[in-house]
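To the team - fe (ii) ion complex, inputs and output below.
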Amino acid sequence: MQPRRKFIKTLAGLAAASTARSFAEPEPNLRPPEKPKGFPTMWVGAVTATGGVVKTKIPPGLNPRLLVREAGGEPLIFKPEPLLDPSQTVAIFRLEHLRPLTDYQCTLEVKGAPASFPPAMVRTFPPEGQPANFAFAFGSCARTGSQHEVFNTIARKRPAVLLHLGDFHYCNISRNDPRSFRAAWDTTLSSTTQGALYRNVPLAYIYDDHDFGPNDADKRSPARPASRTVYREYSPHYPLPAGDGDAAIYQAFTVGRVRFILTDLRSERDAEKTPDSPAKSMLGAAQKEWFKRELLEASRTHGLVVWGSSVPWIGAKGSDSWQNYADERRELCNFIAQHRIKNLCILCGDAHMLAADNGTNSDYSDSKKLRIPVLHGSAFDQGGSLKGGPYSEGTYLPKGKDGLFGWVEVEDDGQRVAVRFTGRNHLDEVKVNLNFEIA
Ligand SMILES: [Fe+2]
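Output:
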């Protein structure tokens, strides 16, 4: 933890830079990856139609407040939640009683004076259960502390939410040491481009292997307790059905009539090298039960269900993907077929590529009647890797300095949901696309 005096000095030193820059402008002094500049300011997530969570790094005892104001309005004042753990270094502000589809400027106040860094911005979602048109971004995989321009590109497009499907950093931590995980978060949030993005666009994030533990990590990772506990401290996550502390991080949320389901495919998974069998699981028993219940309920009550899988779904060979949990993949497909779930699409991380499949290649059920669109929108900042497939709409690997992401526009008239996916690079050029409709 920083000494208090140094922290206040840091805030004061940033005062001049605090006001003029908006999220839409590229921040100056972009530096190469692995050399982040700055320090963690504020980051936003768990947004709903009426609330959200803002997190920031604050040493205890500074009595911070968050002033949350819509244009021309009086500020709402929020105090941080009490610390659960005395070693916690993150202050958590839980916003409530906000209005749907409204922009709020969130200014941190420390010891009665406005803090110096730029305010966070929260745009609340459309009302739950009502048809709404909106766009969201998704992707995964960025070098530790990446300052890639792609993060500015995403911020400029103002998605309702950014789904980050893992490899937030590549620290590959294999020790059960919360300080290592906190340092990894601090490095990532200190990137000027990522910091500005997460201050202005709600983040919905699940880890994959490199940010959960070592490469290809599973539930046996010695780092598991620290990883899952520090996730709860730093990530502005939605409510976690598995509870507090050292537990899985699966979660779900709603925008309009679209249900997003994010699974934890690392911390409960059996070893990949175990021979495939009905008992071998990537989800673990408790999460699988929750997932099936969510799928069933959401498919009945929502127009579209979006499942974020941190690893590729389609494929017959290769490693670290669903193909090595083929019995469980078939079980899930049979469940989807049996319950006639027809409004699901899958978003995948891990593979450093853009790709789309219209449902031709994604069905592993016994009936062979499913058509589940599958979308890939990676990597934010990594060299290319082709995984799984085939993909009906093709693939695109990053070229040169490409930073890649997925962009999804949803148009919902209450009867029919039209989805337009485009896989893009940091110049916002479209490389892969797929349109589909659910009626
Ligand atoms: Fe990755």
